[in-house]
Design a protein that fits this description.
By secondary structure, the protein is of the alpha/beta class. The chain contains eight helices and six strands, in the order αααββαβαβαβαβα. It is globular, with a radius of gyration of 21 Å.
Length: about 200
Amino acid sequence: MPPAGALARLMRSLRCLPGVGPKSAQRMTFHLLQRDRAGARQLAESLLHALDAIGHCAQCRTLTEGELCPLCASPRRERSLLCVVETPAEAQAIEQATAFRGLFFVLNGRLSPLDGIGPAELRLDLLERRLQSGEIAEIILATNTTVEGEATAHYIHEMAQRHGITATRLAYGMPLGGELEYVDSATLSHAFNGRKVF
C-alpha cells in the first residue's frame, strides 16, 4: 500500500531537493521519523528560521541575513574588481578556491528568453548602476559555459563596454592532469582557440 497523508506529503516535499528522487525521499522520510525525530525537528526549525531571516544583499544579491553581506560590508575588499556569477554557491566556490579579493554580483540565474528570464529578472539594472558609479575598473565574467551562460556574459560585456570598463572572462580549457584523448571536443576546441604564449 503506497504511503498517504502526512507521510506521503513529507516524501513529496523532500523531492524538491536537487538529486532527491522517490527512493531517496522515502529513505530520508523513514530515517527522520524512525531514528532521528529530534534531528527532523531541528531541520524543520532551521528551514523556517532561514526562510524568515535570509534575504538578498542589497549590493551583490547573494544570500545574507543583513542588508549587506559580509563581503560587501568589508572595507578590505578591492572595490574596483567585480566578479559576476550565476549563483551564491559559485561566488562561495571562487572565494574559497582563489585569492580573489574583489566583490561579486550574483545574477541568481542566467538569461533565458524561452523560460521568461530577461535582464529585469536578473536585476541587471542594479549591475548597470554599479557600472555607472565609476568605481568598477574590471568586471570578471564567471558565468557557466552553457548557451544561456555565454549569452548572459555577452550581454554584460556589452554593458561594460558602454561604460568603458574592462571585461574579462574566466579561462576555460584543459583540466589539470587531464589527457588530450579523454577531453571532450568542445573543451579541447575552446582551449586550443584560447591558447596563450608559453
